Automatic annotation (TrEMBL):
Belongs to the sulfotransferase 1 family. The keyword Iron-sulfur does not apply. This is Sulfotransferase. Pfam families: Sulfotransfer_1. Keywords: Transferase. Residues 55-313 form the Sulfotransferase domain. It comes from Zizania palustris (Northern wild rice). Its EC number is 2.8.2.-. It is an enzyme of class 2 (transferase). GO terms for molecular function: sulfotransferase activity. InterPro entries: Sulfotransferase_dom.
């Protein structure tokens, strides 16, 4: 299982232990409106206070279980395509899990490994589940850097989350996981506020915040890879279009391809998610699997609350 209590002696540990606490499948601490996983909270606070972005950094953000791994793979493949042509037999994504290619800030800062960030060549890609309002101010204000967010139908998110956490806690109940989404105490929840923070930022600053949906990506991956590359400042050239580079990126990062790479079938992540088995990040890779897990009454309850909370956006 996930480790729970953090050492109060550690940086921000005393702040975290003073926060409202909820014990469920992951222990949550309520900080400025979000139920942060207790284990990651000190790392998130350190990230918020100490991270210094470079103008060409790209922060890949997501609600958990909404396509983080895929976004990391696509962004890495697109950004590094000169050094690593996507069709090359020795591409890093053929031998490394995507989480090994892009650092997860909660981990990096919890483990005080942030010096490694200074050593990364520009443009850097980094990753976090931090809500928009809790990102480092230097990221979100004027001279900050770019942010890409991905979210997903909450019904599919909860199914994905349930299967993921069950790898660590086999007795986890689906109903408990589901109810935690409804009452907002799900890790990093409320999910609607997480989505809304990034949604509003993307409307206010479309040049700095790109908002993506897993379902859209699945429907037309190529179009979104183009959008992503352009947003990151690395648009595909006419020559690359002719050579089929976009299609190569899409193919390299496709679910069936990635799931079957040896690096994703074996091994565990280093540090993050408490050394999660790589294969836990590749389950079904489809939309609509919720029909196999919840009644239509449950689905309506979830849809209604998200419809209500996301009213006034194009997300409903
Ligand atoms: P399912 O559990 O519904 O299959 P995250 O990366 O944020 O943890 O999200 C995991 C979800 O993304 C899982 O959903 C997983 O199968 C799916 N996923 C992982 N890699 C993918 C890919 N290359 N293409 C499409 N979906 C992918």
């Amino acid at each position: 299982a996930f480790p729970v209590a953090r050492d109060p002696e550690e940086e921000f540990g005393d702040l975290v232990v003073a926060l409202p606490r909820k014990e469920q499948f992951l222990v949550g601490r309520l900080y400025k409106g979000f139920w942060l996983p207790e284990y990651f909270a000190p790392g998130m606070l350190a990230f918020q206070r100490r991270f210094t972005p470079r103008p060409d950094d790209v922060v890949l953000t997501s609600y958990p279980k909404c396509g983080t791994t895929w976004l990391k793979a696509l962004a890495f493949a697109a950004m590094a395509r000169d050094a690593y042509p996507p069709a090359a037999a020795d591409h890093p994504l053929r031998r490394l899990n995507p989480h090994a290619c892009i650092p997860f800030m909660e981990d990096i800062f919890i483990e005080r490994r942030e010096a490694m960030l200074d050593g990364l060549p520009s443009p850097r890609l980094i990753n976090t589940h931090t809500p928009y309002s809790l990102l480092p101010e230097k990221v979100t204000t004027g001279g900050g850097c770019k942010v890409v967010y991905i979210c997903r139908d909450p019904k599919d998110m909860v199914v994905s989350l349930y299967h993921f956490i069950r790898r660590l806690q086999p007795d986890l109940s689906f109903v408990d996981t589901f109810e935690s989404v409804l009452d907002g105490t799900v890790p990093y929840g409320p999910m609607w506020d997480h989505i809304l923070g990034y949604w509003h930022a993307s409307v206010m600053h479309p040049d700095r915040v790109l908002f993506l949906k897993y379902e859209d990506l699945l429907q037309n991956t190529g179009e979104h890879v183009r959008k992503l590359a352009e947003f990151m400042g690395r648009p595909f050239s006419a020559a690359e279009e002719t050579e089929g580079t976009v299609a190569s990126v899409v193919e390299l990062c496709s679910f069936n391809k990635m799931k079957n790479f040896e690096a994703n079938k074996t091994g565990t992540t280093e540090g993050n998610y408490n050394s999660m088995a790589h294969d836990a990040f590749f389950r079904k890779g489809v939309t609509g699997d919720w029909v196999n897990h919840m009644s239509s009454e449950m689905a309506s309850r979830l849809d209604e609350i998200f419809h209500d909370k996301l009213r006034g956006t194009v997300l409903t």
